[in-house]
Amino acid sequence: MFKVGIFGLICSALLLHSCTKEVQIDIPGYEAQVVVDGRIETGGFPIVLLSRSQDLYSPALLSAYVASFITDATVSVSDGNTTISLDYVAVSSLPIESQKTVAEMLRAELSDVQAVPLYVYSTTNPAMLGVVGKTYTLTIVDQGKTLSGSTTLAPPVALDTVSWIPESPDSLYGYCKAKLTDPAGQNNAYKWEMKVITNTGNGPKDNIFRSSSSPYFSDQFFDGLTLDFTAKYRVQDTTYPHPYKYNFRRFDSVVIKMSRVDDAVYSYYERREAQKGSNGNPFATPVNIPSNISGALGIWAGISPWYDTLYCVP
Fold this sequence. Notes:
Elements (H helix, E strand, L loop, with lengths): L1 H18 L14 E8 L5 E6 L9 H6 L6 E5 L4 E3 L1 E4 L5 H11 L3 H6 L3 E4 L12 E8 L2 E8 L8 E6 L6 E9 L7 E8 L19 E3 L7 E6 L16 E2 L3 E9 L1 H15 L15 E2 L2 E15 L3
Parallel strand pairs: 1-17
Antiparallel strand pairs: 1-2, 2-6, 3-4, 3-7, 5-6, 7-8, 8-16, 9-10, 10-13, 10-14, 11-12, 11-15, 15-17
């Protein structure tokens, strides 16, 4: 029995060896693409960050990320009548509102953005301040290639009401409740942000607007209807009692920023968040992230905000 067993194993091994075949997979070479993160808001200057996409198999090092920045492109923005060239400048040299916009784009604190040697393409020419109703075309010339995309600053949509609702009748902590009536037949999309401007003794609690990981939503399912929704603070306040760490405190002052964006901007950010949410899941459906810039990855986003101040009293 022992000899038969060894013989059987040897035969099986020889059979398996004779059936194996070396398979070679030819993986296409990697080609870097231009990645654009650009924005223009009503009343704000255009801001554009340019980089090159990274090889999936390259080392994930900070130095590699910094090295991916594009510093020598020719970048301009046109409103159809006037064309302005953007300069490659340090963020710290920009007007404070532009610095805040960069921090919000990067989801970083304003102090962090001011502390690092970060550069962007921008301008302080008043002829290129964002105006509602205008279409802005971004043109990038990089390594002999011309890339371009357009975005429109549509009229903003105001909230009907915004109020503070305490968690219980005598609670010091509550949440924001808002009501939005969507204009019918316009394919509207929105972005929701907020910042607490209550003075903490060292200035306002927030220097920049804060948002959730998915602040964009469209009227696909409520076109022309009235929508009621609620929101809490986007950052955990560890000084508040445990159940209320994401609440607004009674007597807080909160600036609400409700922005309108076009379909291309909404589609880009909505699908980008879907991809991030499925990262690492082998069973997730692949997500193709659209771009409104021909020949490049990324987005040139027009943001049309509407503002209101919420005073946290019942």
